[in-house]
Structures are given as structure tokens and as C-alpha cells.
Amino acid sequence: MSAIIRKYRPEDWPELQDIILNAENFGPSFVQYEKLRIDVFAQNPEFGTVLVAEDPGSHEVVGFAAVQYGWRALVIESIVVHHKHLRKGIGRELIEHIKKMVAEHPSADVLRVDTGDFMDYAQRFYESCGFKEGGRVSHYLSWHNDQIVYVFRLKRR
Fold first, then answer.
1. Beta partners for residue 152, in sequence order
2. 61-69 and 48-54 as β-strands: parallel, antiparallel, unpaired?
3. Cβ neighbour number for residue 22 with a 10 Å cutoff
4. How far apart are the C-alpha atoms of 41 and 36, rounded to whole Å?
5. What CA–CA distance (Å, rounded) separates 32 from 36?
6. In which order are the strands placed within the sheet that holds 61-69?
7. DSSP helix/strand/coil, 87
8. What pTM did the predictor assign?
9. pLDDT at 141 (0 to 100)
């Protein structure tokens, strides 16, 4: 599938909420947190952006990514694809779009994302998109798991 990648609009929220609620490793508490982040980025575009992947035929929202703008890095805060559309290249399309954003960002050298050490599929995905492990943070989200930080360097200084 080749998706249309575009900026989030408030009317997209019900579809994003459905995507989050049906995704593995997320749920109602993440919905509230993600809604807050999306609202902040929508109201303060200098802080970040939310991109949606839309099916070009049905116009259904099939995935999204929230990207925070940092001083030297863009950080993928979340990237989620609807469970019915996994392994169709949508996540990769979102990542490639974000890589282009980083290349155009005035001060960013790096694209960064992190994931739990128990999320093997996410680790394989990021590595297949060219990310390298940059470090680990022990007990970051829970006492029993580490968070793996992945980086993709775009520019050389």
C-alpha cells in the first residue's frame, strides 16, 4: 500500500483513538497521554507535528506518528499503524517522510526514537529502517524493562 502522508487534523482524532486502542502494548491510559501530546503539537506547531497515513482510496487513517522538534534532533514520540494494516509498508513510509523532515530542519542532525527492550518487532523495524542502537536506559518505564534508544544520523557536521 502506498499511503498519503499528511498533517493531522482534529477530525482525525476518532480514527487515531481507534488505532491506539487496538494496538499491541497500548491502551486507554496511552490514549489520554497521546491526545494531550497531539493537542499540544496542534496548538504549538513549533514544538512538533503529528502526521497521519491515509489510504488513498478509502481515505481511512491507517497510521500516525508524533514528532517532537528538538534543538539538534527530531524525536519520534510515537508511531502506530492500525493492526489491520501492519506489514504493508505504512510505518516505513511514515519514517521516510520524517527522515525528509529532519533533512530540512535547520538544526537537526539526528532522528531519534526509543522502544522497550521487550518489543522485538519494534527493534527489528527500526533497524530495518536504518536506525542504530544509541544506548539503553535501565528501568525507564518499568522496573523490569529497559528502554532502547535508536538514532538515525542524517547530517555530518
1. 111
2. antiparallel
3. 13
4. 9
5. 6
6. 4-7, 48-54, 61-69, 73-81, 110-116, 145-153, 132-142
7. coil
8. 0.91
9. 64
Tell me, what DSSP letter sits at residue 11? G
148 within 8 A of 131, measured Cβ to Cβ: no
The CATH architecture one would assign to domain 4-153 is 3-Layer(aba) Sandwich (3.40)
What per-residue confidence (pLDDT) applies to 10?
95
Residue 25 φ/ψ, nearest 5 degrees: 70, 10
Predicted pLDDT at 155 = 58
- Determine contact, residues 77/66, Cβ cutoff 8 Å: yes
Q: How far apart are CA 146 and CA 79, in angstroms?
A: 19
SS (H, E, C) 27-53: CHHHHHHHHHHHHHHHHCCCCEEEEEE
| DSSP strand pairing (132-142 vs 48-54) | unpaired
CB neighbour list of residue 97: distance below 8 Å, 6 or more residues apart: 5, 51
What residue segments make up the domains of the chain, in order of their start?
4-153
pLDDT at position 76 is: 96
Per-block mean pLDDT, blocks of 10 residues, the chain (157 long): 93 95 78 93 94 96 95 92 92 95 83 90 94 87 82 73
